[in-house]
Structure formats: C-alpha cells, structure tokens
Design brief:
By secondary structure, the chain is of the alpha/beta class. It has 2 domains: 4-192 and 235-245 and 259-321, Glycoside hydrolase/deacetylase (TIM Barrel, Alpha-Beta Barrel); 195-234, no CATH class. It is built from 11 helices and 11 strands. The radius of gyration is 19 Å and the shape is globular. The two termini are 14 Å apart.
Length: 332
C-alpha cells in the first residue's frame, strides 16, 4: 500500500498551558484561524479530522466555523473529551482528573455521551471517531466508546508515558493500526510516535535510561538526539522541525509502516496559547513546516491521504488487499 496520511486536529478551547487547568477557560476565539490551515490542506487534497470538544460545540464562535470547514465533505468531525470543561461538572479539577480514564467509568461515560449529544445537535450527525483529551484512554474508555457506538479511536500515543502526571502509559504500543473491542470491532489509529536514530533494537531502553531524573543534569536525552544515536519523535509540527518529521516518517517507512497521523492543536494556530507558537514569526514557521511536510509526503514519498472513516471502510472490504492499491476515498 502507498504511504497513507491522516491529519487530526485537536480542536479545542484556548488556555495557557503553563497555568493550572480551569473550568473558566472556555474561549474559542482561535477556532476561526483553522481556515488558514484548511486552505493549505486543501491544496494537497487532505481532508482533516477536527476532534472537537464541548466548549467548541457549545458556542457559536466554535461550532459555526467547524460547520463551514466540513461542508461538502471538506473535513470530518471526531469527539474530543476535555473532562474539566465537559458536563456534568462534578469532579474536582486536578491533573489526574484531566485524564478521562481516571474518572469513574459512569462519569466518563456520561461526559462522552453529553459531548456526543452536543456534536449531533450542532453538526447534524454523530461522529464515528473518538480522541481522548490529554490521551486519557484506558479500559473504561474502551468500554464506553464501544457502548456509545463509536467505530474508531485516535487516542493512543505510542512510546509516551504520562504516569508522572497521573495519566496512562503507552510505552509498549506501536504506531500501527489495530482492531479491538468485546462485542464490536473498533479500529485504533494511533498517533505516529516512535524512535529514530542509529540505535534500533534497544532504542526505548536507551531513551528511558537517559530520561531518568537522576541523570537529567547530564542532558543525555539531548546529547543522544544531537549525536543521532536515538531520538523520540512525534509526527507533529508542534516542537518538531520538518527534518525530524521527515526522519521519523522515513524510519517508520523502512520498518514497514504505511499509515501516518499528523497531529496538532487548533490553539497553535494563534500565537501565545501553546509553547510551540509564541510569536507571529513562530506561526509563519509553523505553517511552513506543515506545508513542507505535506509536499514531502505526497511528492517525494508518493503518498496519499485519507480519513480514518474511509480507511476503516476499506479495511473491512472482504477483498480490500487484492482489489485496490489504496483505500477508498483517498484524495490525491
């Protein structure tokens, strides 16, 4: 199969990531800035998935731009849970409770259900895909989204460990899609994260060793990355220059990977809201990074793009592997 790219945008309220989480941070003024990114994606035939959370769907400044951006099949919508701003607002706002999988199963289920209702009310249809905010996906999450009749999950972030902040660990997951579920088959399309560099077989162990708190003063993680020994990377313009995004893609491609997910946050499209884009210059470089990667993926690699929903439909065709070289619904 040709290399296949998904673009998933965490479409959410804006807040200062360096400050504690607050239920009062529900502004969605930055959602309008998605139009500039949509124009870039459209030039490459990319249909993005907007993973929208409750504040976006609860305010006209949020849902109306999304409705415009997805009109005519130019984009798709997924559900994105930020528990601290998603009703019912009954739990204490803490770092641990910001991961949906740490809530009681009943509360997590109800919050996702309320989010589904809000999306259906504003968009006219229930989304088929789910992405947990802050990657807060666990056993209870899997049960809830299966019961709520989702078909696709986009939450898992391979190689990442959020346990220090009270979240889950995905250290032992790879970036390849897989099916899961008890009563129904759901498709997991993970974020694209992994290790690149000279070390292959023991890359995770070496990176974990360098990341130990007692060794932080030696700056081994940065030293190993600069030397080309091992570098843990995510396919995102947030914190990763084009060269690293290209390196990760080529590394995974050599290892047999054929699906790639480019991820970012809507708030990175306005200076001052994420650590990745603080100035107008940062924003210009951020957009250039995305454009260069899309050009690289579609031209140099000969890749194509699709949506999670079209990919799942293609996978479930009885003769998909033999009948066509690329998923139904891909855009070239």
């Amino acid at each position: 199969m040709r290399p296949l790219l998904f673009v998933v945008i965490d479409t959410e309220e804006e807040f200062d990531w360096s400050h504690p989480l607050s239920r009062q941070n529900t502004s969605v003024q930055t959602i309008r800035q998605l139009a500039a990114l949509a124009r870039v994606l459209e030039r490459f035939g990319v249909v993005p998935t907007y993973a929208v959370d409750y504040p976006v769907m609860a305010q006209e400044d949020g849902w109306r731009p999304i409705r415009e951006l997805t009109a005519g099949g130019r984009g798709q919508v997924a559900a994105h849970l930020h528990p601290w701003v998603n009703p019912p607002l009954v739990e204490e706002v803490t770092p641990q409770n910001s991961y949906g999988c740490n809530l009681s199963p009943a509360l997590e289920h109800e919050k996702i259900g309320r989010l589904l209702d809000a999306i259906e009310c504003r968009m006219g249809a229930r989304p088929r895909s789910y992405k947990a905010g802050r990657y807060g996906f666990g056993v209870s999450t899997a049960a809830s989204i299966e019961a709520l009749e989702f078909e696709i999950d986009l939450s898992i972030n391979p190689t990442m460990d959020f346990t220090e902040d009270g979240g889950p660990s995905f250290k032992h997951f790879g970036a390849a899609p897989f099916f899961f579920g008890v009563e129904r088959r759901l498709l997991e399309i993970p974020c694209t994260s992994g290790y690149a560099g000279l070390v292959r077989m023991r890359a995770a162990g070496l990176h974990d060793f360098a990341s130990q708190p007692r060794l932080q003063r030696l700056h081994l993680v940065g030293l190993f990355a600069r030397s080309g020994l091992v570098n843990k990377l995510r396919l995102s313009p947030e914190g990763h220059p084009f060269g690293e995004m290209r390196q990760l893609t080529r590394t995974l491609l050599r290892r047999g990977m054929r699906t790639f997910t480019l991820t970012l946050h809507s708030s990175s499209l306005t200076p001052g809201f994420t650590p990745y884009v603080q100035t107008s210059k940062d924003l210009a470089e951020f957009m250039t990074r995305i454009e260069r990667y899309l050009e690289f993926f579609h031209t140099e690699l000969g890749g194509t793009s699709s949506t999670p929903e079209a990919f799942k439909t293609w996978l479930e065709r009885p003769t998909a592997a033999e009948s066509t070289p690329a998923p139904v619904g891909v855009r070239t």
